[in-house]
Design brief:
- With about 100 residues, this protein is mostly helical.
- Helices cover about 50% and strands about 5% of the residues.
- The chain contains four helices and two strands.
- Strands 1-2 form a two-stranded antiparallel sheet.
- The relative contact order is 0.09.
- The model has no long low-confidence stretch (mean pLDDT about 80).
Length: about 100
């Protein structure tokens, strides 16, 4: 019963990671690299992705783990978010 390949995670509530980045930060790099590859500027796309990931990672540090979802709620129209039970983000004052 001694399976050496069995790895037990140290922290169960850690967000998913890709290399040394959180998944949402890594997706920024991958998306910019893909756009750069499609447009013929792969190295520039990777560099832009690294800059975007660095800026987003700095803005996200010390904040709630769902910081990206909060940004989407505040900046996207209500029809795109698909949230039915929450009020629209443009309503700042609630009655009741």
């Amino acid at each position: 019963m001694s399976d050496v390949s069995l790895e037990i995670p140290r922290r169960l509530n850690d967000p998913p990671r890709m290399f040394w980045w959180d998944l949402d930060v890594a997706l920024l790099v991958l998306a910019a690299a893909l756009i750069g590859m499609i447009s013929g500027f792969f190295i520039s796309g990777c560099a832009l992705g690294m800059l975007l990931a660095s800026a987003y990672g700095g803005a996200k540090s010390g904040k709630h783990p769902a910081f990206a979802l909060h940004l989407l709620y505040w900046h996207l129209p209500a029809a795109l978010t698909g949230l039915k039970r929450t009020p629209p983000s443009h309503l700042r004052e609630m009655l009741g």
